[in-house]
Amino acid sequence: MKEPNKGGGFWNNLRQGGMPSAIASIRGGESAQQTAQQMAFIRSLMREKRRPEVLHTPLSELETVIFDLETTGFSHQHGDEIMSFGAIRVVGQDIKEEECFYTLVKCQTAIPENITRLTGITEEMTAAAPPLIDGLHNFMAFVGQRVLVAHGSAHDKSFLNAALWKTSKVQLTHRVLDTMMLARWLEPQRSNYTLDELLAVHNIPIQGRHHALEDAKMTARLWVSYLREISNRRQVDTLGDLYAYLSRA
Predict the structure, then answer these.
(1) Residue 52 lies in a domain
(2) How distant, in Å, are the alpha carbons of 15, 103, 151, 210 from that of 134?
(3) Residues with Cβ < 8 Å from 56, sequence gap 6 or more?
(4) If both were cysteines, with which of 19, 24, 62, 85 could 139 make a disulfide (CB 3.0 to 4.6 Å apart)?
């Protein structure tokens, strides 16, 4: 085959990392189509009504996804963003160690030095990560319609809602349980309900703190510890029972 003319603009563009506008538009179209499909999936998932029969599910059979987010700060209203998602699946008291999810996502805002020291996540790491819509789509696909669990869930839920609205103009419709609320109900005498404090109290080894997946795994162990306590001491059999007790706590 005859070698192409290396002096031509087409081949020079390719060698230098450039791309003719026609090819760029095709690739841009493919990317736009993928994004549209991801948005459609997320919107479809959020449109599904909460199934009331789930409230009758015994806690021993309840499927949950325990999750954690690492963020650039503490206020999405002031431009802070999600840097990473971490999650693990739990069925009843059975932590599915092999069924985990983790991803970094690209940030549009700078990562403060104190956040990098805390999490180990740098701007270079997020610059090479997939965009938010990819990470959010894959995270929600992992979650499906399962009940979500987090520690201090208000922070994670607010950032998740901000990301869902930014990418897909929807809000989270999943049920979300909070291990901090469980701790306040079951251990009302405590003055400190931080994750570190509760992990120490329950003899759960602290490893990889402030890494989204490791925090999710430790929170999963805390969740299971509370489920065991509930099954032994309280007349709480179903998810509906648990909601009823937490609403009175």
Answers:
(1) no
(2) 28, 10, 24, 22
(3) 238, 239, 240
(4) 85
Q: What residues contact 8, with CB distance under 8 A and at least 6 apart?
A: none
pLDDT higher than 60, residue 16: no
Which amino acid would we find at residue 203?
N
Residue 116: give the domain boundaries. 62-247
Residue in 193, 212, 206, 182 with CA at minimum distance from that of residue 83: 212
Distances (CA, A) of 99 to 7, 64, 66, 131, 143: 52, 12, 11, 23, 11
pLDDT digits (tens, 9 = 90+) for 74-87: 999 999 999 999 99
pLDDT score at 29: 65
Question: What are residue 106's phi and psi, to 5 degrees?
Answer: -70, 135
Q: What residues contact residue 50 under an 8 Å CB cut-off, 6+ apart? A: 173, 174, 175
- Domains: count for the chain: 1
- Classify residue 119: in a domain, yes or no: yes
Q: How confident is the model at residue 7 (pLDDT cuts 50, 70, 90)?
A: very low
Phi, then psi, of 147 in degrees rounded to 5:
-70, 135
With residue 247 as reference, give the H or E element that holds it: helix 239-248
Residue 49 identity: K
Q: What is the pLDDT of residue 28?
A: 56
